Amino acid sequence: MFGQTLQITLMNLSSIRYRLGTSSVIVVGIAGVVAVLVSLLALSYGFQETVRNTAREDRGLVMRRGSANEWLSYVPHNTITMLQDLDEVVLASGEYLRRTQLIDKQSLTKHSGTVRSMDADGLRLRPEIKLSHGRMFEPGKFEVIVGRRLVETFQRLEIGDAIVDYNGELEIVGHFESSGSALESEILTDLATAHSFYKTRMVNVVRIRLADTSQEPELRETLKNDPRGNTELRMEKELYAEGAKERATVIESFAYWLVGIMALGAFTAALSTMYSAIQARTVEFAILRAIGFSTVPLVTSILVEGMLLATLGAMIGGGVIWLTVDGLQTVTNDINYALVSFNLSVTGQAIWAGIGLGLLLGFLGALFAAIRAIRLPVTSGLVPL
Fold first, then answer.
1. How many angstroms separate the most distant Cα atoms in the chain?
2. Is residue 238 part of a domain?
């Protein structure tokens, strides 16, 4: 049995060079499906990695109870003072958020960026912020610093340029990095400066650092029992994990929906191609069965051929995306509906998911073709002889 299988398989593979046109249909179709799947998964994984890099175990946000995100939150000023006096809290910084319009360098499309203002403790809360060019903004002056990713992606964000608003201009005095986190997609300034510039006293959230992560339940209970604030604690790791999961679910759901449609087309093309190959080799298969070859080697040889062509297509599709897309910078919105610029990440998980899908399509296409081959009467192939 093994000898028959090996002989027929080698015969099938050696004849592929005479069927390059039809065989390439399978390879190209599966390569296209895998390329789309891997690129969309790279989008999801890159976004999740950037958002995860933003969170720290000991940092949290005090927000208005029930707020879905920072933008929809409001906390009273006395909350900041109350938090600063608690033993559980090492640092506390009130933060206020505003939108500003940004223009993409390549497409010239308009995007809504985030201007985040913070108290004096804000920078000490985020030791990962490092100036890459220029200097830090000075409190009381209409100055800002801009994240690295924004500078790379959008126009007019160089040092000396200005963030223009109907209230006036905020001068850009520096650029910063933040360990690849989503903060690199924001513009930072002083809270008092923002209040003066935007003519408001609003504070969206208070970002805190715990003295010890084990004190998180105590702080939650304190906020719950405080009748003045109507606030709650959301740890960064919790909040950003939710945001990453929510956005990733949307991206991956779209990916599987789109790839499902494409896969159906690729499967149909592969099946049609394999059927044509079987039809053209009816006499060959009839002779093999007439001289004593069983159906198992025939089926196995067709499956091996289909799987090898599918593997080739999957590797081409995944390889092309890895070479051309991995590290490519793009933008989307996070859980706060704020702009996040990040790099696509073609991971091993994405590549293996693509290869798995390609092999599945190749197996199914070859299986149906093999069933057709063994169901053909031996006489139907011998009639022409």
1. 97
2. no
